[in-house]
Amino acid sequence: MADMDGYIEATSFGLKEVASYADFKVKGASNLGWGMKDRLSRIFNPLTGRTVMLAFDHGFIMGPTSGLGRIDLEIVPLVQYADCLMCTRGILQSSIPANVNKPVCLRFDAGSTILTELNRNVLIDVEEAIRCNASAMAVMFSAGDGERESITAANLVKAVDAGNRYGIPVMGVTAVGKEMVRDARYFALASRVCAENGATIVKTYYCEGFEKVTSTCPVPIVIAGGKKLPEKEALELCYKAVNEGAAGVDMGRNVFQSESPASMIQAVYAVVHNGLTPGQGFELFQELKNK
Fold first, then answer.
1. Does 170 fall in a domain?
2. Which residues are catalytic?
3. CB-CB contact of 244 with 211 (8 Å)
């Protein structure tokens, strides 16, 4: 017990002052518990409310694709520039040094190279996410895809229930169903369904009319990088997305398949957090590449 000798009673209480941390910048998170907010504040920069996530979970269905052949040589040097890492538990435990001290969005559903029961309705144990010290869990949701929509929605709900028990946010990752079109109507629908089912973050694709998607989703949206683009186009994608309401990006191939991955992720970071235009971001990319 603390020694009461020398105790000095407080006299200044700042009755008219507001604590600087009172404004929590993550959209839709004001009513969440402390643990949820703590994990979200690791993922989203508290100063900007935005994030640059580095996604390298592709191998769980694609194997060693370009840029992911050697995680230790190709990905580990990039993690210092990211706000958050999105990967599978196998790669996290085998290839990512624990002392990098970066928050992890853990791939929470299972995967294989063909569509089987394994990657349709299997989630890893929430205790595994806790052991990995995950700051979020990512689960696919496929709207408008018949039976698969029902299965992925059930997965999402199970993940949210587990996350709520332990204060771990869930990121709903929207997939494009066979009968759906990659447009604002679809992505607004899929994103809203994720949020309505309890996802605290949504990952979706940028599209024309993207403001409709972000404005009608009550939780933060991060955009997927999608297919590999020329560097300047990828930076334009980042710029347009954050200026139309996205809370950041979750990029993979547009970073690790770039001609200079370390330069690219730093340019993406500058566009997302520092407000650089695509032209300024591309100039930074070239400057860093040529060093």
1. yes
2. 203
3. yes
